[in-house]
Amino acid sequence: MSDKIKKPRKPIPGWLNFVFGGMSGMMGICVVQPADLVKTRMQLSGPSGKKSVLGVVGDILRKEGVTGFYTGLSAALFRQATYTTGRLGCYNGLSNYYTSTYGVPSFPIKLVMGMAAGGLGAFIGTPAEVALIRMTADGRLPPEQRRNYKNVFNALTRIISEEGPAMLFRGATATVTRAMVVNGAQLGTYAQAREMLVSQMGDGIGLHFVASLISGLVTTFASLPVDIVKTRVQNSAKGTSQVAVLKKIIQNEGVFALWSGFIPTYAKIGPLTVLIFIFLEQLNAMYYRWTESDD
Q1: Closest Cα partner for 38 from 72, 12, 75, 74?
Q2: How do residues 146-184 score in pLDDT, each as one tens digit?
Q3: Angle at 88 between CA 153 and CA 29, to 5 degrees
Q4: What angle do CA 113, 114, 115 make, to 5 degrees?
């Protein structure tokens, strides 16, 4: 019999889930870094300095130029190399194990797996997160108060030498809390939306785009309050608790301040989710083309 029997595809090796996850995150952040910077600046402006998205964008263009939108890119890339590598690698590993052992996971199980993967990835990526927040916040400070970190590695070494190694994990609890909310919402909602829409739309970029936009909207709404608290904890000159920061925001700025920067946050999370999953699936496809051509 000359016809070749098509073998079922073997799962992608576990370690490659981490590599592909990190690579897709780094490629995606290069596109959405400006939106993330605007979001961070809006979150750090108190009640007296509150500005609209256009106001923040105008300030950056006037004071820092177009390149100012990519301030902190090295830290953002390093964060994706640690945080996204960890969270996507863990999530895909957990999902593959659960599916092969128990079948397709339910939506609550997807949320739990997303939260677990996000928490672990966030703890690993906390030092990069601290450096990123400080670098993106630097431009809004008076020149004499700026830290002027040259790149992420300069930021990390200076934080250690000037403030001590423990400072790299400032706000770790807030970072992990946010990541659990973000990943539970983002990965769980994306997987569920994809599963529900695939029969109507078919598998392809259109499906990934729509599922990502749904996921991004849910994620933005759910995560912004903890994201704002985390950002202010990490940027504070002195250590402070999440609860104290949360109370201060509500008392001084009102409850709706917890959703400050909603538009730039969604402008980042929606496209970033689209880009990450498109890049991830392309990397997976390249792997299968390369391995199957050798058979």
Answers
A1: 72
A2: 888 888 899 999 999 999 998 898 878 878 888 898 888
A3: 50
A4: 90
Confirm if 219 and 233 have CB atoms less than 8 A apart: no
Query: What angle is formed at CA 266 by the lines to CA 74 and CA 201, rounded to 5 degrees?
Result: 110
Pull the structure tokens for residue 34.
Answer: 């400006």
CA 212/CA 196 separation, integer angstroms: 13
Q: What DSSP character marks residue 286?
A: H
- Are 219 and 262 contacting, i.e. CB atoms less than 8 angstroms apart? no
Give CA–CA dist 195/210, Å, rounded: 12
Longest dimension (CA), the chain: 79
The alpha-helical segments, DSSP class H, found in the chain are: 14-44, 53-64, 73-79, 85-102, 107-137, 152-163, 172-201, 205-235, 242-253, 262-293
User: CA distances (Å), 81 to each of 101, 118, 167, 277, in order?
Assistant: 30, 14, 20, 16
Residue that is written with structure tokens 């001084």 in the block: 252
pLDDT for 25 beyond 70: yes
- Residues sharing a CB contact under 8 Å with residue 294, sequence separation 6 or more, in sequence order: none
Does the structure show a pLDDT above 90 at 27? yes
- What is the pLDDT averaged over residues 27-52? 79
| Cα gap 246→233, rounded to integer Å | 10
Residue 226 and residue 181 in contact, taking contact as beta carbons nearer than 8 Å: yes
State the angle between helix axes of 14-44 and 107-137 in degrees (0 to 180), rounded to the nearest 10: 50
- Give the position of tokens 């431009």: 139
**What is the pLDDT, as a whole number, of residue 238?**
67
